[in-house]
Amino acid sequence: MSSSDRLLLILHIGFAIFTLGPLTAATMSTPRYIRKRDITIVRYLNRTTAIYAFGSLGVFLFGLFLAEGKFAKFWLSASMTLFIVALLLLFIVERDQRKALRLLEAAAGTPAGAEAASAAAPDAASQAKDEAGEKTKKKDKGEDGASGAQGDVAAVERGRIAAFSGVIALLWIVILIMMVWH
Asked: For bias kind Low complexity, which ranges apply (predicted)?
């Protein structure tokens, strides 16, 4: 193995470790914070998913350069195909994260730019967030005359994110097994 191949292998493995791990953690923890209605954390996880999904292209590109045109090998073709499938599922997860974020903001009555304002005035923003949280709790319990039907905000998105995140993690594991046992 030449030194340039070693460098490509190091970059390929490094990108795999430092992008796929955080990406999987972000996507798999999103449903929990949607259920808790934590808009700040869901926004952070959405941003993390987008950034690391883009960074995961480095895994694919360095693997492509490392393959040197040996695409006739089954394990290599299958790994690349599974990676592309996982990347497409990541686009769906990221879309659902954005949609869940919009639904959570609408349910809390928080405008989209309120997080930027909270950095400027943390006391007022935290007081508004506490009031919104109390209002949400009252709605869930039906204390303000509402039936509590709005209790499960973004349930469809949360379920889809959970399912696709599990499938994506499984795809990463299958690719890893193929890479090790080729």
From this structure: 115-127
**Residue 18 placed within a domain:** yes
Q: State the residue for tokens 């954390």.
A: 41
* Interval 52-62: pLDDT, tens: 999 999 999 99
- Judge contact between 44 and 81, C-beta under 8 A: no
Q: How far apart are CA 130 and CA 110, in angstroms?
A: 12
Cα–Cα distance for residue pair 124/71, rounded to 1 Å:
58
Q: How many domains does the chain have?
A: 1
pLDDT along the chain (182 residues), means of 10: 91 95 96 96 97 96 89 90 97 97 91 53 52 52 42 90 97 94 84
Per DSSP, the residues of 123-180 read HHHHHHHHHHHHHHHHHHHTTTS--SGGGSTTHHHHHHHHHHHHHHHHHHHHHHHHHH
Rounded distance between C-alpha atoms, residue 168 and residue 87, angstroms: 8
Exposed/middle/buried for residue 42 (C-beta within 10 Å: 0-12, 13-18, 19+): buried
Q: Which amino acid is at 91?
A: F
pLDDT digits (tens, 9 = 90+) for 69-84: 888 889 999 999 999 9
- Is there a domain that residue 80 lies in? yes
Domain that holds residue 13: 3-108+153-180
Quote the CA–CA distance of 15 and 125 in Å, as a whole number.
37
- What number of other Cβ atoms are within 10 A of residue 172's Cβ? 20
